[in-house]
Amino acid sequence: MIPKQDIDIILKAAVQAPSGHNYQPWKFKILDDAIVFQNAPENDTTVYNYKQRGSMVAHGAALENAVITAETLGYACVVEVLPEESDTVLKLILSKGQGTGRASLVAHIDTRTTNRKPYKKVLEQNKLQQLSVLPGDIQSSARVSFLTEKTDIESVANAWSVNDWLIFNAHVVHDALFPHLVWTAKEEATKKSGLFIDTFELPPPVRGMFNILKYPAVARTFGAIGFGSVAAKQNVENVYASVGAIGVITVPSLTKENLVQAGRALEHVWLKAGSLGLSLQPIMGAYYLALRAEEDTALQLTSEQKTKLAEAKKVLTTTLKNVSGVPAVFFRIGESDSPSAFSSKKPPHII
After folding, report:
1. In what side-by-side order are the strands of the sheet with 34-39?
2. φ, ψ dihedrals at 37, nearest 5°
């Protein structure tokens, strides 16, 4: 039986992982020699989390934190991903033994955070090479690649910005953002979930506008006069294309097991980026929404909006050129000032 103090340490690290809207879609069950990761689909019901794809990536990130931490405690880890249709995501089996050598990253688990500030546009090639190397048990399913050419970065940045345009022009996308915002530090410290607005790094005039844009009728009015296009363009210029590189994690297909591995790869790269003094921000909205628009005929978008998403998805996939596999995660990476605010995490939910 695994000592309770070890379980507590491992799970505390696991829940520091990133998740869509910081909704932390996990519960845990403790067995004699294992930790079971249970999905909580009710935690993240946003339009982006179709087929729980985002939640599976989040579980993979939590798993990577757990494995790294378990190895520092002297455990060897074996992972079993459960069948596709089960809400039980995976089982982490622990035994005393030697780990795979990634324990040096444990110091960066508590400090890992999303940084939405602009990044420097130059990134040392040797750092990208280090970030491209994944442990063997992750590399068997996931691969990380980087785009560094200016034209490629600008193409991807413009594709990402379709989601910003939709916020002002599609009710379903507006409702995937504003009702999930946490508006004050006091509220954030209490809820420990949702999108803390201070982490958005908004300049004061834009921060003030968010207070009125939260009303759908106001957002639609601004959208009708072209404000969505203006906001999208500003994000491309000031944030999305202000990077050292754009990263993509690909997998053979978007199965449950592969998405878990993509999440592990994302967290591994993120922690290693922290050790190299780099910042990272996943950006998945337009891509995940485009995947849903292809498959979900009931999605409440106009034909124009679906066309823009399809075009964005085409850019995001064709810009990869010689990269094999299907994209599972996109992110921007580079050197930056420290973020202005951080999101809190709930304690582990053990069932």
Report:
1. 26-30, 34-39, 88-96, 75-81
2. -95, 120
Nearest CA to 90 out of 141, 118, 55 is that of: 55
**Predicted pLDDT at 100:** 67
Could you count the other beta carbons within 10 Å of the beta carbon of residue 178?
Answer: 16
How many whole angstroms separate alpha carbon 305 and alpha carbon 169?
A: 8
Do residues 18 and 48 touch, judged by C-beta distance below 8 A? no
- Gap between the Cα atoms of 308 and 304, Å rounded: 6
- Rounded CA-CA distance 59/6 in Å is 20
CA 337, 338, 342 angle in degrees (round to 5)?
Answer: 150
Digit-coded pLDDT (tens) for 263-317: 999 999 999 999 999 999 999 999 999 999 999 989 999 999 999 999 999 999 9
CA distance 201 to 245: 20
Pair 43, 24: CB distance under 8 Å: yes
Q: What is the DSSP letter of 350?
A: B
Residues in the chain, how many? Answer: 351
H-helix segments, 248-302: 256-275, 285-295
Burial of 164 (0-12, 13-18, 19+ CB in 10 A): buried
